[in-house]
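Chain particulars:
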Amino acid sequence: MRIQWWQSVKIGMTIVGTTIGAGFASGREIWEFFGSYGNHSGSSILLAMLLFCLASVVILTISWQKGTRHYSEILAHILGPRAGQWFDQLVLLFLLTSTLVMVAGSGATFEQWSGSFIAGALVMAIAVMMILFFDIRGLMAMNTFIIPVMTSVLIWVCIEFLLSNPSVPLTVSETTSALPVWPSAITYAAFNIISLLAVLSTVGSQIRHPAEIWTAGILSAGCLGLVAYLYNYSLLKVTHLISQYEIPLFALVKSYSKIWVFTISLVLWLAIYTTAASNVHGLVFRLSDHWNIPRWIIGAVILAVLTPLSHLGFQTLVQFLYPLSGVLNLFLLTMILLYPFSRDKK
């Protein structure tokens, strides 16, 4: 069957859009998982992206071969029916709470722009719901448009900083971890696996050839790896400033005009949006098995319930969500990577 290369690009951009949330775009994830380990952390990005690529390929392959409609069916293949049902509920909880964090993050972003928290939450909810009218094709088209813009801005910021500060040496601060970096690389590869599972489990029907799967996996890992490496290298030159910024990205643009700072803030909001859209997409496809109504209505109900709850606060929600997701993500990454070697796969 003929390979659709453009389809590979759209799937690859959807993978990036699901992964490149506000934590990545702000530089906080890059610093915590890589930069904080010192000058030799760059090589660990390669390990993280390799694992990330392989996990994406495995999920896409299962979705394509088995014709899965949502993540629960992937879990059944990877973990078995009984364990899959149990983890189905955990993934559902994670996606709901993660979406809640994204809505709250949008509200917090609007507050930083001297706007209203509830307005920010509502804008996010409405923007996500609009994508649901177009199902997976709409999500892929949105990411294909937004992700190149987002990554281009981030790459430009890093390159501009490096060219403007060629003589600034890489520094090691007192906060640099003495632990080996490779476990952190594995943890990072697992960090977004649930959101990826939720989205990629619905993509199988869009694939026509296995080469599209590998192309999408390599493209997405390469794109994320390039941005992560440039970001990490840039942040290592301003190690002494990281503690002064909750968003490390602003340490690289502290001399920029207000217009550029606003543009970068908009990129951060878009990063929240693409991840939120992926999470809600995965949720509605899963719940459509139980609710025989249009998917966009399911999404509207979810967002209508979650938006008022976003007042719990962004930081409070993150503190609850991250410990919950850590163990679950690592376990699922392990099982996904082991699946090709499983004797029970059919």
User: Anything to note?
Assistant: Residues 23 and 294 are 32 Å apart (CA to CA). The domain at 5-334 is CATH 1.10.4160.10 (Hydantoin permease). The mean pLDDT is 86.
